[in-house]
Specification:
By secondary structure, this protein is α+β, with helices and mostly antiparallel strands. It has three domains: 122 residues, PAS domain (Beta-Lactamase, 2-Layer Sandwich), CATH 3.30.450; 76 residues; 150 residues, Heat Shock Protein 90 (2-Layer Sandwich). Helices cover 43% and strands 24% of the residues. Helix 5 packs antiparallel against helix 7. The longest helix is centred in the middle third of the chain and has 45 residues. The two termini are 71 Å apart.
Length: 353
């Protein structure tokens, strides 16, 4: 509320403010008649001074300002019972509608018994149209993305089915194994894709993500779950979708490799996937209690799976290390330094397959 002891000085000050205002502005008396209007008001609403000065606000133009809620709010503001701040209204004139934001403040001139209101107006029509267009585009994008995701999922299922049918028909055992490997990789990609669809926030919780990924791998590759099992241990880390894809592909390749080589002759065993982080540092490991190997992953003949793991680890700026697990083998992918065993996160392994 603005106060000045001299009513004439106060009125002159208000008139000067209105006259110099870049935004449309009106000075109203206690009867809501226009005392003065800014030049920007005349331009914005295509009105002439002779048709505005001294006229009630609600009779300006074709009466489009006569909005019951606006009338009530201005009366309440004049009575000190309310204050209009960022009140939005639609001004309808000549078949068109404009979105306005109004602010009104009572001017107090001390001993002057006449109350006056300073009303400023902002036209946000274009801004609201832009927001609506943006919202419509985002909704359309979401619909198209959902349709694309359904098509991708269907395509992956078709590809996996074709690969499995081809594996059954070929005579060469080597070719059959290659086709089965391709089938398993396609199914793992399908699982990754499903997880990304489920995530609405852009971040993925790795514990449930790895658990469902391993569950899918186990369902497609483990024939006897009493003989072989998969467990997942992870902390509460959440990562961006692109990072989760890289980590998921690494886990897929390492789990497939362990299932293929660690348990020959129907040997029983367990494959354990573990992830934990501290600050920006993290460590992912896949270990088994199988027959073990003396070959380092980096020193192995670079097949498709090995090449994928090394390339993805490089993208994540992580180091790959293969070591004996006594029994079995453990492959670790480590990003920067990681705390020692004494600082490990006490998670209970979850059997997923």
């Amino acid at each position: 509320m603005n106060r000045t002891r001299d009513p004439e000085v106060g009125l002159n000050l208000a008139l000067a403010i209105v006259a110099s205002s870049y935004a449309p502005a009106l000075l109203l008396d206690e009867s809501m008649a226009v005392i003065a209007a800014s030049a920007s008001f005349y331009r914005a609403f295509a009105l002439s001074p002779q048709n505005v000065a001294g006229q009630p606000l609600f009779q300006l133009g074709a009466g489009e300002w006569d909005v019951p809620q606006l009338r009530s709010l201005l009366r309440a503001t004049l009575s000190d019972n309310a204050r209009i701040e960022a009140y939005e209204m639609d001004l309808k004139r000549a078949g068109a509608s404009r979105r306005l934001v109004l602010n009104a403040q009572k001017l107090d001139y001390g001993n002057d018994e006449q109350g006056r209101l300073l009303l400023t107006i902002s036209d946000v029509t274009e801004a609201r149209i832009s927001e609506k267009v943006k919202d419509d585009l985002l909704r359309e994008k979401a619909i198209l993305l959902q349709e694309l995701q359904h098509r991708v999922a269907n395509s992956l299922q078709i590809i996996a089915s074709v690969l499995m049918q081809s594996a059954r028909r070929v005579q060469s055992e080597e070719t059959r194994n290659h086709l089965r490997d391709a089938h398993n990789r396609v199914m793992s990609i399908a699982t990754l894709q499903q997880q990304l669809v489920v995530s609405r926030l852009g971040d993925i919780e790795l514990r449930s993500y790895f658990a469902q990924l391993c569950e899918s791998l186990g369902a497609s590759m483990i024939h006897d779950h009493d003989q072989l099992s998969l467990t997942v241990t992870a902390d509460d880390t959440r990562v961006k979708a692109d990072i989760s894809v890289s980590l998921g592909l690494i886990v897929t390749e390492l789990v497939i490799n362990a299932l293929k080589h660690a348990f020959p002759d129907e040997r029983k065993g367990t494959i354990a996937v573990d992830y934990r982080s501290k600050g920006q540092d993290w460590k992912l490991s896949v270990s088994d209690d199988g027959v073990g190997t003396t070959k380092s992953l980096l020193g192995a003949t670079p097949g498709l799976g090995t090449s994928v793991i090394i390339a993805l680890a490089s993208q994540l700026e992580a180091i790959v290390k293969t070591e004996a697990a006594n029994p079995g083998t453990k492959v670790s992918i480590t990003h920067t330094e990681f705390p020692g065993p004494g600082e490990a996160v006490p998670d209970v392994p979850e059997k997923v397959a």
